[in-house]
Amino acid sequence: MTRQRRRAIFARLRQANPEPTTELEYSSPFELLVAVILSAQATDKSVNAATRKLYPLANTPAGILALGVGGLSGHIRTIGLFNSKAKHIIETCRML
């Protein structure tokens, strides 16, 4: 796909939906990042159910790192592939 074709596609998408939104619930860029990682192969509804319980306890990289993989896995167990996602989120938090 050429650069010109990609730009044309994005221009059409922007025209059709100039202010796209998401159903994911978040209150900071970090919370959105975690929700997006969790949303792979999952519904926004299931992600929101898990993050409503997780974010009051840990909504920063340091807070989630303190939970560790095991602690985070317990909070996101209702989402598919939770073990893998917990590892990826912990690694993301380490990088941040």
Overview of the structural elements:
Helix 4 runs antiparallel to helix 5 (82-95). The longest helix is centred in the C-terminal third of the chain and has 16 residues, at 61-76. The model has no long low-confidence stretch (mean pLDDT 96). The protein is mainly α. It contains 5 helices and no strands. Helix content is 69%, strand content 0%.
Quick tags:
single chain, 5 helices, mainly alpha, 96 residues
List the helices and strands and how they pair.
Layout: H1 3-16, H2 29-39, H3 44-54, H4 61-76, H5 82-95
Helix pairs in contact: 4-5
Which structural class do you get from the secondary structure elements?
mainly alpha
Number of helices: 5
Distance between the termini: 33 Å
Overall strand count: 0
Q: Largest sheet, described in full?
A: none
Rg, Cα atoms, Å: 16 Å
How much is the average pLDDT?
96
Quaternary state, please?
Answer: single chain
Tell me the helix content: 55-70%
- Please state roughly what percent of the residues sit in beta strands, choosing from under 5%, 5-15%, 15-25%, 25-35%, 35-45% or over 45%: under 5%
Shape verdict: elongated
- Order of helical and strand elements: HHHHH
Spans of at least 5 consecutive residues whose pLDDT stays below 50 are none
